[in-house]
Amino acid sequence: MKGQLKGIICIVIAAIGFSFMTFFVRLAGDLPTMQKAFFRNAFALIIAVATLLIKKEKFEIKKEFGWDIFFRCLFGTTGLIANFYAIDRLDLADSNMLNKLSPFFAILISIPLLKEKPSKKDIAATVIAFIGALFIIRPTGTNMELVPSLIGLYGGFGAGTAYVFVRRAGSKGAKTPVIVICFSLFSCLLTLPFLIFNYVSMTPKQWLIMSMAGVSAAVGQFAITTAYKFAPAKKLSVFDYMQVIFAALWGILFFQEVPVPLSIIGYVIIMGVAFVRWEMARRADES
């Protein structure tokens, strides 16, 4: 159970990091999706390599988890690109909702890959949290364009599937910095051709903003990679919704966005479910 509590703490830290990443990506303005994705992962790659060197760990990919890391990179990268595409073309709330479907996909993918069967309480908690997210997102037919929405939906699938492969690779001995380096390098190589042929000059302010997006993403990436090594997706999925709370907070502080009553209801639902799951974990740890 101690591992589960560590996983929850890591997932909350990841939520803070990724909420800042979303904030900075939107703040960067009208830049190509692939360009944003490249710089997001380039900074994460630098930080991951530095961490590996500081810890003096070997960059080692063993046969046991090589394919797990590859599929983590594949689904994670394509999911990230899809998420950035949706952020640029849908309302921020709608794109976040689609990305927050990742815990559902993670639970589903965990069944065949990790042989993990979620309990009824886990399913109920996750469903309630998703209902809370719907209160916040409020998807409507006027702002949910079909193609961007379907791409955003894949973003949630890609992220959820990637997290499952992270956990499987971690259970086989893969180190967190190694997983992050592989993912960041894979993403940079995949987006580099698009960057070369469709590069848009950035102002000093945009360079700074994208740097901060990369740092925030690195924090989130390290935290979430560690989280899914400590505990299964079914135990962490509810807390992944904390990203919505933090994103709303940054909106209030920096964009003067005042939540509507339905959004406040969603916040209460999500925080309520998160508290109940935390309390259940705490009591189980003490027993």
Task: Give the helix/strand layout.
Layout: H1 2-27, H2 33-55, H3 66-89, H4 92-99, H5 102-114, H6 120-137, H7 146-171, H8 176-197, H9 204-230, H10 233-236, H11 242-255, H12 261-286
Helix pairs in contact: 1-9, 1-11, 1-12, 2-3, 2-8, 2-9, 3-4, 3-7, 3-8, 4-6, 4-7, 5-7, 6-12, 7-9, 8-9
State the main characteristics.
287 residues, mainly alpha
Could you provide a short overview of the structure?
Helices cover 80% and strands 0% of the residues. The chain is mostly helical.
Structural commentary:
The protein is an all-alpha fold and 287 residues long. The protein is built from twelve helices and no strands. The longest helix is centred in the C-terminal third of the chain and has 27 residues. It is globular, with a radius of gyration of 18 Å. The N and C termini lie close together (10 Å). The model has no long low-confidence stretch (mean pLDDT 81).
Number of strands: 0
Q: What is the gyration radius calculated from CA atoms? A: 18 Å
Tell me the overall shape.
globular
* Portion of residues within helices: over 70%
Uncertain residue segments: none
What kind of sheet is the major sheet?
A: none
